[in-house]
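Researcher: Good morning. I'm working through a list of sequences from a screen, and I'd like to move beyond sequence-only analysis. For each chain I'm collecting a predicted structure so we can compare shapes side by side. This is the next one on the list. No need for commentary yet; just the structure.
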Amino acid sequence: MNQTKPLCLLVVALLLQFFAVAQPVNRKIVTPQYKELQQKLSSGWNTWYANSFLSHVLLPEGFSINLCLTQPGNQEYVRNFYKAADIHKRPEKIIPGLRSDDGSYTSITVIYKGETIFIQTAAEGGEQYILVSPVQSKENYLVVEAGLLWNRKGSIGRTGDQLTASFGNRSITIFSTESPVADAYSVTSAPHLAFTTTKPLGICTGKQRSLAEISAIIDKQRRAAEQRIASYGPLSESFQAMQTILAWNATYDAPNERVISPVSRSWSAGWGGFVLFDWDTYFASYMYSLFNKELAYANAIEITKAITPDGFIPNYQSPYGQTSFDRSQPPIGSKVIMEIYKKYKEKWLLEEVYQELLTWNRWWPKNRDRNGFLCWGSNPVAKGVKTIDSHNRQAAAFESGLDNSPMYDDMPFNTETNTMELADVGLMAMYIMDCNSLAAMATELGLKKDADELKKRAAQYSKKLQGMWDEKSGIYLNQRIDTQEKTYRLSPTNFYPLLAGVCTQAQAERMMKEHYFNPDEFHGEYVIPSIARNDSAFKDNDYWRGRIWGPMNFLVFMGMQQYQLPEARADLIARSKALLMKNWKKEGGIYENYNTVTGEGGDVGSADAFYHWGALLTFMEFVEKGYMAPKGK
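Model: Good morning. Structure tokens for this chain:
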């Protein structure tokens, strides 16, 4: 017999119990300002639930209105709902659209087997409004569920043609503009209503409203969101792309009672509820600081508070104690936080994170120094400690953030020093940048002794890095620790000494002329490939083997800012933006990485289609044009 099964656009209710038992992470908050900030963020209606773009959730209650699709006669039950590249052959596709940061307006297009619907929502006066409009319709059903997330206290049910919820001192009723249809075969155990998708449907809380009333409220909030986008003038489309990806990936981590912005919703679901990566999250906070101070602070602080007992910010932190206790990741946190501080000048932000950042800075020379050089590594972990990857060369490559970079192919790993046998130009440069930024932070906080310590360390490693310049090649080269041989595989990290300010102007110009603008190495219609074009691994087009990455481009841009390199900087900004916009305009995608030859993001399965650091490709234009200047200037 035919049995109707839904395309339920969220993970089933059993997973809610899975998340409810997760234990909070251990983090020490020292300022009352940050506690107040998280309380402010963690309230109201928004798309808080990481497992679904179409769950509209009220905090702090945890009540959700979940939207699902039912296709009569279809035996397929799709449990996950994420935007995916065509290469994944997913039956559904979504295009997240214009939205506000705070959930006061959201819009999204859902496409599934010939059916296209456009969904808009608005939050106003503590109530939620949803408008579902068919674009290309079949006689399918939209299922509206009542949900109670994270094992929060309360009750949900159905009374007549309305869904209800009760939370002691507050009751919520969900009204609709159409009469529901009987749909006993929907694969859901939650109280729900089902509606045909052949005509517009309005859903609201608070009181019964007409379709026209709901539409008017949504139009009002949509216009406010559009006005905000338009305020950026020539950069409005770039702003919309960046703001959209960041806002849609802001979710609520219930056990820790915090709003965070993991790299994407699909990564969060895959890691059991959330995953915070080191440099990814710092970059997110930097982009947020353009337009949302609270979310910038929240992400910068939360990844810093993930510091391990051994004293480093880990590669990743996720639920159930899963943390990379063996390794860290690129040390960019102090630089990012100082840039945010320059804009808003709120000293409590520095006070909240300074001690952890100083501890992390001191960790590097104690654990990764080899004869005065710095190397990527991986420390052994205690037996029974939860970590996904073991102590080896691959784990050390993960610490670099460049998981499968050809630079580390067959590089020996020294189990006595817990490091690869490679003095890494990129790590050296980023660490010097970290020392300089943290010294500036210490000075702001009146900690002269710390500032002197950090400046001394910066000078020490700067002298070593200067010695890694190769006059014949005209660029800084990595060097084997065990054999003292130079390695000639080039990636954008070979430009990172610009970040540390160790180059002369002549060296900087030479690197641009002979390498950045060299079509055999890094230049082309799309830039900058993660390994030189003439490297044998470039053709692999696999992750860090030849593809373009937003963070690499952005770090090179930050380095270019330290020198008089106007032509190179303008070229990098224009080509990076063009790459982002090629995919954004085509499909609303902002990818984890991109094909250097075609500029496509969705040509491989290892490029998440909605990954927030892809927006760094256009963020550099905002920095260049002064949008990150101190508030009021």
